[in-house]
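One record is kept unedited as follows:
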Amino acid sequence: MENRIKLKILGITYSQIQNGAYALVLAEEEGLRRIPIIIGTAEAQSIAIRLEHLTPPRPMTHDLFVSFAHGFGIRLLEVFIYSFEEGVFSSELLFEDENKRQIRIDSRTSDAIAIALRAQAPIYTTPEIISEAGIIFEEESEEETAEPEKETGNVKKGLEELSIQDLEKQLEKAIRIEAYEVAANIQQEINRRNKKEA
């Protein structure tokens, strides 16, 4: 299909528009425009643990879906965000089986992206959607990342005082009790320190 733009996942921030929701930020692979998509807590959690390379003790719904598909020789070829109407994005997943038969399945964008992450499948959209929903962040990008910092600042300050060994123990515990947002914060602190030492 022509005239499509490949997207990458930049990350997740707290939504400034909707309480109790998150903004999943996608970006053009070759460009400056960003698309923020409002998603729920469960989907944000599912995407965040994958972005942070965390392994939950039990498979989450999106893990189960991908394992089921692979078990029957079905693979995800791509996710395509094909529509943006009244603030709502619509997506479809393109699957292929062992006999090269293809099928498209309609999906919520948050679920499609959570599955794409696990299946390592590319994400595309149209130039029209990028033009309509895309935002260019320049100096504003620092302000945008500062907001979640304020809300999680106290947690992060507490983490800075722990040793790497203690952080790893806390990470294991957070994953065990399925506190994935806490686990993501701990993982970020471990990554930050590893980068410092490198």
Remarks:
- The chain is about 45% helix and 30% strand.
- The radius of gyration is 18 Å.
- The longest strand covers residues 75-85.
